[in-house]
Amino acid sequence: MTLRAERVSRAAGGRLILDGVGLSPRPGAMTGLLGPNGSGKSTLLRLLAGVLAPAGGVVTLDGRPLDRVGRRDVARRVAVVEQQADTQVELTVRDVVRLGRIPHRRAWTPTSTADEEAVTDALERTALAGQADRLWHTLSGGERQRVQIARALAQRPRELLLDEPTNHLDIQHQLDVLSLVAALPVTSVVALHDLNLAAMYCDHLVVLSEGRVVASGDPAEVLTADLVADVYRVRAEVGHGPGGRPHVRFLGTLTAKPPSRALTRPGRATEDDRTA
Questions:
Q1: Structural domain ending residue among the three candidates 217, 236, 251
Q2: Is there a single domain that holds both residue 73 and residue 162?
Q3: Whose CB among 7, 90, 98, 249 lies 3.0–4.6 Å from 57's, allowing a Cys bridge?
Q4: CATH code for position 6
C-alpha cells in the first residue's frame, strides 16, 4: 500500500481549489499530475505530503489517515521536492543533502554512520558525488534540482512528491531530472506542465481541471486531441513518439469554449471512477 487521496476537497479565500479528488498512485510507478495553472496540482501534492489538511475526504498512508500518522513517521516515508529552493546560508552540496536525514535523527545529535551512508548513496545516485564540497549558491538551476532530489533520497523515502521539478530548466536538464526520477525504486507523483515530457516518462497520468479529476489512465489513453482542447483550450494533433508513446503537436489556441462532453470516453474519469 502507499499514499491515497479519497475524495479530498480544499478551499482557500472562499474558492474551492479541489473538489472530491481521488488519487491512488501505483506502487513503484511514476504518476504524472497534469492540468493548467490553478487546477489544483500543487494543493493536491501538499495534501499528500501532509502539509495541508483536506476540508473533506481523507489522505491515507498504508490505509491509515495521514493525520493519525506521526509527522516524523510521515517524513521518513514521504519526501517532497519543491519547484525551487534557495538559502542565504553558505551550505555545501553535502550539507544540503544531509538535511534529508533530519527525520531519522534526534534533535541536536550528530550524524550517524547510517546517516552518512544514506547521504553518500544519494549523492552517487544523482551523479553529484564529485560536487559534494561545492557551495550551493555556485550551482546551476539543473544542478540545484538534482541536489534537492538527492536530499529527498537521503530520507530513504518510499514515496516521492515533486512539484514542477523541470520548471526553469533547459531541455537537457529536464530530461536528466525526469530520467533520474523514473529510474528510482520509489512511488512518485510529479506535477508537470509539459504534456510530452509526461508522456515520455510517466507510467500513469491524472489530469485536473478546475479542481476535479477529468481523466486518468495510461498516457496513450489520456492524451487525446479532445482532452487537450477541453482542458487546455488548445487545438492539437496526437501522434506517436519514441516507444509508441503519444506525442502532442500543438496547432493553436481555441477562442470559443466547446460544448461540454460526457466524461465517459476511454481515459476519462466517470462518477464511479473519480480515483486515479
A1: 217
A2: yes
A3: 7
A4: 3.40.50.300
**Tens digit of pLDDT per residue, the chain (276 long)?**
689 999 999 998 888 999 999 999 999 999 999 999 999 999 999 999 999 999 999 999 999 999 899 888 999 899 999 876 666 678 999 999 999 999 888 777 778 899 999 999 999 988 899 999 999 889 888 888 889 999 999 999 999 999 999 887 889 889 988 999 999 989 999 999 999 999 999 999 999 999 999 999 999 999 999 999 999 999 999 999 888 899 999 999 987 555 544 333 345 454 334 444
For residue 199, CA distances in Å to 76, 149, 181, 195, 225 come to 30, 21, 14, 6, 14
With left for phi above 0 and alpha for psi between -120 and 50, is residue 13 left, alpha or beta? left
Q: Which three cell numbers stand for residue 180?
A: 533520474
The C-alpha cell at 89 is: 546560508
Residues with Cβ within 8 Å of residue 140, at least 6 apart in sequence: 173
pTM for this one? 0.87
**Residue 14: which domain range?**
1-77+158-217
